[in-house]
Amino acid sequence: MKRSINPVSRSSGFTLVEVLVTVVIFSVGLLGLAGLQATGIKLNHSSLLRSQATLLAYDIVDSMRANQGKNKANLPDYAIAMDDNPPTTATNQADRDIMDWIGSLSQNLPSGDGSVSLNGNRATIVVQWDDVRNPDIPPKSMTVVTDI
Questions:
Q1: At what angle do helices 93-108 and 14-66 cross, to 10 degrees?
Q2: Regarding beta strands 122-129 and 113-119, do their DSSP bridges make them parallel or antiparallel, or are they unpaired?
Q3: Beta-carbon count within 10 A of 42 CB
Q4: What does the alpha-carbon distance between residue 78 and residue 123 come to, in Å, rounded to a whole number?
Q5: Could you tell me which residue, 4 or 20, shows the higher pLDDT?
Q6: Domain ranges across the chain
C-alpha cells in the first residue's frame, strides 16, 4: 500500500487563478477611482473660478454704490466694454475702481476680463474667463444685473 506524506489536492492551481482575477478587478476599480478623482478636481477648480468671478462682479457693484453720490452723476464713468483697456491714469474714483477691478480680474481669473454697461440706474456686469482645466469648452461668463 502506497501512502503519500503530502497529498496534493486537485485544486492547487485554482488559488493562483483566483488571485489573478482579484488583482485585475482591483486594478480596474482603482483606475475608475483615479478617473473619478481627476474629474472631481477639474470640477472643483471650475467651481473656484465661478466663485471668484461672482465675488469680483459684486466687488465692482459695491464700488459703484459707494461712489454714486446723491445724484448718481458719476455712474457713467464706470462704463467699460469687454476687451477695452482700463484707464491708464486715474482722474476720479471711478477710474481707480475700474483700474483695480480689471487688474483683479486678470490676476484672479485665467484670461479674465469684464464689462460694465449702464441703462439708467440699472448696471449689467459681465465677467468672462477661460477654464484652463476644460480647454474643450468656450470661455465662461457670468452676468450680474442690478439696480444701483
A1: 170
A2: antiparallel
A3: 14
A4: 10
A5: 20
A6: 14-147
Sign of CA dihedral 102, 106, 109, 111: positive
pLDDT tens across 33-73, in order?
A: 999 998 888 888 888 999 999 999 999 999 999 888 666 77
Instruction: Quote the DSSP letter at residue 113.
Output: E
In the sheet that 122-129 helps form, which strands lie side by side, from edge to edge? 113-119, 122-129, 140-147
In sequence order, the 6+-apart residues with CB closer than 8 A to the CB of 28 are none
The enclosing H or E element of 94 equals: helix 93-108
Q: Which candidate, 108, 89, 109, 107, places its Cα nearest to that of 99?
A: 89
Classify residue 7 by its DSSP letter: P
Tell me phi and psi for residue 91, to 5 degrees: -95, -15
10 Å Cβ neighbour count for 8? Answer: 7
Cell numbers 446723491 correspond to what residue? Answer: 70
| Nearest residue to 139 via CA among 19, 50, 75 | 50
Q: Which residues of 75-84 are buried (b: 16+ CB within 10 A; e: fewer)?
A: bebbebeeee
